[in-house]
Write a structure and sequence with these properties.
Shape: globular
InterPro entries: Rds1 (IPR039254)
Protein name: Ferritin-like domain-containing protein
Mean pLDDT: 85
Order of helices and strands: HHHHHHEHHHEEEEEEEEEEE
Bound molecules: 2-acetamido-2-deoxy-beta-D-glucopyranose
Keywords: Signal
Strand order of the largest sheet: 3-4-10-9
Radius of gyration: 25 Å
Structural class: alpha+beta
Helix content: 25-40%
Length: 442
């Protein structure tokens, strides 16, 4: 009885939260949910009045916070919402909230008389992006199986990955079966991708989990980077619903490593050529019928002083504060590959590293993180031995004191120019890119 009331209050609460404009949603939900918990422990008679108070409290909070939502430099956690228990007014229904409405006009593909959605690539950009993403799904499928098969249950237990977490790994591999099937279904008959053979850099449970964490990070970012640019929006819909699952895998791997799982406010996007440059090195052989990937393969950028995120005693956890390996200003030491290095499935043609011939010498390290590309001038550039260094940038999202720094697993490239880029034109970095890698910036 009591739990039924609790659910009703929760449902009303959630819809109130969803309809509230421009509020910090997490803060509001927490305040409202604690109200719900409080109200649920009261007698059933008081629950009805609690319900109206909760809704009222949610909208009060909304208007109180929306006026400051634009002020990005102030803390989003600063304002304290009104406590519902102090509210003594009455609830009157909002006439605009009742009755069946016509949907707002506009939107793409919403016309009931328009053509039905076509879940296939519309052009070469769509096709190549989908082929790349299918290669990514297959390496994940293979990697998760490979990791599970490579280590004993005792070795997994020692790393804090218990039987239930191993089942989650198994289930993630099955999710990849689903994703690769959906993507292949959208590919034309002459461009189907089959699973390849791979070589992996892991030699322990912890290095397997860490590699999976990095690989899923470029997997999700690689798709976010092109999704809004696809011509085929129906295809984008399927890819969106796949890649959000992958983002949850990425977070689960961070938790298995005992890291703070979300050290950012936004997930970054990546150009396809960056994702492909990071992926192709692990593919050793593919069926000859597999389509080629027509994105660039950049020389890899290595971080010589890359911190190891896991230690012998690190254990999985929902969240830890294990995130202070670098400080802004810490010197990052880079080395990079030459042009013309062969990699990938050599027997079926392979791929070679290359940069745009009009790109100049490396002058900046570009940190690709959250919504931003943050450039730092390179120091000690040695183009003969291909080494350089750069300090970790001092960055706060929106210049807010609570804004995350360059943090978590982020991507770094070397470029010849510090071209100003925002999320939707990030791919313009490609012609300036000389090497691509990643940094454990925790
Ligand atoms: C992958 O490896 C297996 C086992 O060594 C081999 O039988 C198979 O032919 C390889 N696949 C490709 C595409 O080379
Ligand atoms: C946090 O990091 C410390 C130092 O590397 C390590 O000893 C500890 O096990 C880590 N904790 C977790 C939960 O991974
Ligand atoms: C983690 O950091 C937060 C914020 O500084 C702090 O409130 C919390 O107590 C820390 N946790 C541990 C285990 O130190
Ligand atoms: C990453 O974020 C955590 C938590 O805010 C912070 O303790 C740590 O110093 C940050 N790391 C860097 C490199 O900024
Ligand atoms: C990061 O990028 C966002 C979106 O382009 C921008 O609004 C913000 O100002 C940038 N942050 C900083 C500190 O430059
Ligand atoms: C490149 O490295 C070699 C061997 O360490 C060294 O002898 C040479 O001086 C370096 N080149 C430059 C330009 O520093
Ligand atoms: C953040 O602060 C720096 C230094 O004061 C300034 O150069 C930059 O323009 C600011 N960025 C934003 C987005 O306000
Ligand atoms: C990228 O987009 C921003 C606007 O968001 C614009 O100011 C900038 O000039 C663009 N970069 C290039 C290289 O066109
Ligand atoms: C190389 O970069 C230049 C300048 O952005 C561009 O015009 C050209 O198309 C690029 N070349 C190739 C092969 O992409």
């Amino acid at each position: 009885m009591r739990s039924t009331f609790k659910l009703a209050v929760l449902a009303a609460t959630l819809s109130a939260v969803q309809s509230a404009p421009q509020v910090h949603p997490a803060r509001q939900l927490i305040s409202v949910l604690s109200s719900v918990v409080a109200s649920a422990t009261e007698s059933a008679a008081s629950v009805t009045s609690s319900l109206s108070s909760v809704i009222e409290s949610a909208s009060t909070t909304a208007s109180a916070e929306s006026s400051t939502a634009e002020d990005a430099s102030s803390s989003p956690y600063a304002s304290t919402p009104t406590s519902f228990s102090s509210y003594t007014g009455t609830y009157s229904p909002n006439p605009a909230a009742t009755g069946y409405k016509n949907l707002p006009p506009g939107g793409v593909g919403t016309d009931p008389n328009g053509p039905p959605p076509d879940y296939s690539p519309s052009d070469e950009f769509d096709l190549q992006s989908l082929i790349l993403a299918t290669y990514q799904e297959y390496i994940e499928l293979d990697l998760f199986h490979n990791g599970l098969a490579s280590y004993s249950t005792g070795e997994f237990d020692d790393a804090g990955i218990d039987e239930s977490q191993r089942y989650l790994l198994q289930f993630m591999a099955e999710q990849e079966v689903g994703h690769s099937t959906a993507f292949n279904n959208m590919l034309p008959p002459d461009s189907k991708v089959q699973i390849c053979n791979y070589t992996y850099p892991h030699d322990s449970v912890r290095s397997f989990i860490d590699f999976s964490q990095v690989l899923t990070r470029w997997g999700e970012a690689g798709v976010y980077g092109f999704l809004p640019h696809l011509t085929s929006r129906p295809m984008a819909q399927i890819m969106l619903q796949s890649i959000t699952t992958e983002a949850k895998q990425q977070e689960a791997f961070a938790m298995m490593e005992g890291l703070f799982p979300q050290v950012y406010w936004f997930n970054m996007g990546l150009p396809q050529s960056y994702a492909w440059s990071l992926l192709v090195q692990y593919i050793s052989a593919c069926p000859p019928s597999n389509p080629r990937v027509n994105f660039n393969v950049f020389p890899l950028l290595f971080v010589l002083n890359q911190p190891q995120l896991y230690s012998d005693d690190s254990q999985s956890a929902v969240a830890t504060n294990n995130t202070s390996l670098w400080e802004p200003g810490s010197s990052i030491e880079f080395a990079w590959e030459a042009n013309g290095v062969q990699k990938g499935p050599i027997e079926t043609g392979g791929y070679a590293t290359a940069v745009n011939s009009s790109a100049g010498a490396p002058r900046f390290a570009a940190f690709i993180h959250q919504l931003n590309v943050t450039y730092v001038p390179l120091e000690d550039v040695d183009t003969e031995n291909r080494t350089a260094s750069a300090p970790l940038p001092d960055f706060r999202m929106f210049n807010s004191t609570n804004g995350p720094n360059v943090n978590g697993t982020v991507f770094v490239s070397l470029v010849d120019e510090d071209v100003y880029l925002t999320p939707y034109n990030l791919s313009l970095i490609v012609d300036h890119t000389l090497a691509v890698g990643y940094l454990h910036a925790y």
